[in-house]
Amino acid sequence: MRFILKQASALVLMAGASYAQEAPIIHDGEFEFLRAQFAEQWDAQDAEIEVKLAEIRDANEGQPPNILYILIDDVSFGQMGNRTMNYVTGFDTPNINDFATEGMSLMRMYTEPSCTPTRTAMLTGRHPVRAGVEEVKVALVGEGLAAEEVTIAEILKEKGYNTVHVGKWHQGDIEQAYPHNQGFDWAAFPLHQQVQLSLMTRDAMVANMLGFHSSGQSNQFQLDERFKPYGLVTGVEGEAGGLAREVDMAPGEEWTQAKYEEMNLRYQRQALEQLERLASQDEPFFMQYWPLYPLNFVYPEQAVSRNGGFHADKLQVLDGWIGDVLAKLDETGKADNTVVMIMADNGLMYHYEGTSGLNQLIYRGGKTQHLEGGVRTDAFIRWPGAIEAGSAAGDIVHVSDLFTTFARIAGATDRIPRDRVIDGTDQTALLLEGEGNSRRDCVYVYEGPVLRSVVKQEFKMHLPAPGQPGAAAPVFNVYRGPREEHPLVGYSLWSGASFQDMVKRHQKTIAKHPHLPLGKGVPYEGIENLRPESELTREVFSSWQ
Amino acid sequence: MRFILKQASALVLMAGASYAQEAPIIHDGEFEFLRAQFAEQWDAQDAEIEVKLAEIRDANEGQPPNILYILIDDVSFGQMGNRTMNYVTGFDTPNINDFATEGMSLMRMYTEPSCTPTRTAMLTGRHPVRAGVEEVKVALVGEGLAAEEVTIAEILKEKGYNTVHVGKWHQGDIEQAYPHNQGFDWAAFPLHQQVQLSLMTRDAMVANMLGFHSSGQSNQFQLDERFKPYGLVTGVEGEAGGLAREVDMAPGEEWTQAKYEEMNLRYQRQALEQLERLASQDEPFFMQYWPLYPLNFVYPEQAVSRNGGFHADKLQVLDGWIGDVLAKLDETGKADNTVVMIMADNGLMYHYEGTSGLNQLIYRGGKTQHLEGGVRTDAFIRWPGAIEAGSAAGDIVHVSDLFTTFARIAGATDRIPRDRVIDGTDQTALLLEGEGNSRRDCVYVYEGPVLRSVVKQEFKMHLPAPGQPGAAAPVFNVYRGPREEHPLVGYSLWSGASFQDMVKRHQKTIAKHPHLPLGKGVPYEGIENLRPESELTREVFSSWQ
């Protein structure tokens, strides 16, 4: 398998070499609609931007900026970055609040409604469905991000960047999907989303009855011993082209809340170590720090926040850690030539509200849902001297735009694949020229494989269910009705046809450029110290394949 | 009637003279509970505060500070004062946002859930039910704030302040309730809440079908021509002890949206004029500016906000006007010795959401409701050199506290009545010493005459309906469940008894110091130029009395 991967990697490199700068990127139909209206203006602006980027490189010994991308798990819009909401929720995010004042607040950042697809969109610049990605579960799946997908890490690496990933990954349990096989020189990550495994502990069981542990049940009629996950691989580390190694578990050892907390601490420690190491090298760096916190389901020994709930408290802890990462970056002297972005991957799981501030607050809905509460998140980006400090932009941005924009900033646009649809729009103009310069005014919002709504400007249509007439599709003005509760006939009747046209253009693009398949394989291949219980779990899993 | 009023006023003055500084203010039982725990600490702090206040007076030629109190109508918490929420709602409040950074943000200000009671609480320092005040309707009622109530304006006037009221008043249509008979030297105000009358116009009828106008109905079976209000008095102006005069309506004239907009413009103009006049005088001043906007139900000719809805747009307009008032204060050179407060009176009428951004956003519920969305509002207070710029306080504050606190700041605590319950807590320590120095950690929340919930620290009990058992009363943690949707058995079972005790203490205080009656009288007395149609309306109204 590793051999095949290396071949795939080589193919990508060869393909990369053949991307002519002149070949246009294949965008969705809607982008071409906009481009037809603004081509001249955008081309002129792009020429200015090239000059600006060159000036910035010249001021930094010819090097493009470093990129530090911090992606937080399941935090709804408004929960970090502003003091007013801190007072509502009873936990503080002073470091992120301060950070927000040092760069641009992207006030209308759309993600996908769940962890795996949002991360795929950022890594590939594509709607996850185009890569066959829907959602990756915590248990074994034998699936993951395909080797054929081209990640931002691969692109930047080809341009000489050192690349590191630390923390949550959640792109699958097959070898080709591991970050060190997807463009990262080095990676430390849990093979699944570890908090879900942490729910299977005695600590979680007694914490407000949220978890499951076999000691709390008689298990009298249980046959299947693998329905309740057992023997799963936990945290691994790996280097590009090498094997992964599980780092924190001995054969027969049981996963506990203490181990989950230690895992979080370790990633924080490694983020600091790697940042220091990367900053000491001559090459520019691209580092992803994707913490597991605030996800957590056990109350702290002693609360640090006024809220005190397990989720709220860990977000306050994480804010402190992010402060430490930013301080470390300052210490290295590289802060001025580093683009730092902090955002969340989707709204929180409000389904469990009442227990820990897991609430639908400003927007309705949360994780797994196409509602604004599922796909709108706080997002802050800082680039001293290039992005105006204290600025904000209400323009629509989608998480896939980061792929295209980071590539542009790194001078790597020519490495963006030309043989597949790229949904990411280059938002460098927005960052450098400010609010009003987005090249996107719409988003297609999927729940897994299903297109559930379309956002255009201040309007949003919830698409009718299969078989339902288009006239049944409600349209909302997200300023006047942010909670998407009261559709108005006045919006629906004139905008319905326009929205349906947008869906048709999107579908035509898919018909012309079909989705690529999800990566498939044997789970846990490429791990050198697989524990016997993990081996057994894999065997049971494979018995059905 | 005027004669009687003057007598009443004289009585108040005499009573005022007899308030010995040593006689304790009668507070509610819950306050005494706290005082028993903190008396020594508070007394020591009060001694320090007296020194501080004296220093401030000494630095200002021996004068206490001016007070400018701006109270906005029906704006839910989070809708003004912070940029993040501006981006959510699509309208901007840059002046109020800036103002918020110049003083203290009171992050947990509780009001009453409706206009009239909130204003009564601020004016008298008492829960409105103690003054017999529930709600005053737009049509004729023959009721209002009783002459026997002692307002903050009366107290400050006795201490040499010049006092002015401009804008919404909404304390009743009887002579004793008019602001110029309640302690204000001069007042300009609509006799009712004018926007409700503005709904009875042709403009409002065609604006999204929100209003009523007789031309839009056949009126075929109508008998009563007064059910649809007609001939009501609109804007009046008056001087202390004198008659009011209606200023903007000729006999037979019809009220229109244009007249409503002109009325708003006039109050803004008068606010600026009065501020300039007051600042030019030797005495300190107390000025209330209580705008009618953002209440409005007709779309603007041309939107100024991204939202564009009638409510949202007028809040943006009003923000600009408030900026003009603050600039005018700067211009007078009195800003440094003026306490300025900007807040809203209660949550907005979300019942009509979808039409103009009238949404339940952060908290659930709105005007008329005991939910946080009804009684939590944005509140910002600035006092250069005394209140720390850019500070915030999560302490609980109730709007009645302003009465007691403004009195303290003005050196008029000795004028606070000692013969009735005062609910307002002196919050000077909070303002001068910062977060954590509130002398209140609870609020009784009424809907009209009914006690609906009790807030204590981070917990809030919704009281059971009459006849329902106490065990049915849900308790919420407002940090973990700000929308009061998911009561938890774990909170209710231990806190239930404590909450019931609080209710008992409150009821015992009422039994000992019964509520005073609402003022009653003949509507529209004391207006010198009553129009014939207003006279007719009063006659029809009186036919039933």
UniProtKB/TrEMBL annotation, chains A, B:
Keywords: Calcium, Hydrolase, Metal-binding, Signal
EC annotation from Swiss-Prot or TrEMBL: 3.1.6.1
Sulfatase N-terminal domain span: 65-411
Organism superkingdom: Bacteria
The keyword Membrane is assigned to this record: no
Family listed: Belongs to the sulfatase family.
Protein name listed in UniProt: Arylsulfatase
Name of the encoding gene: atsA_3
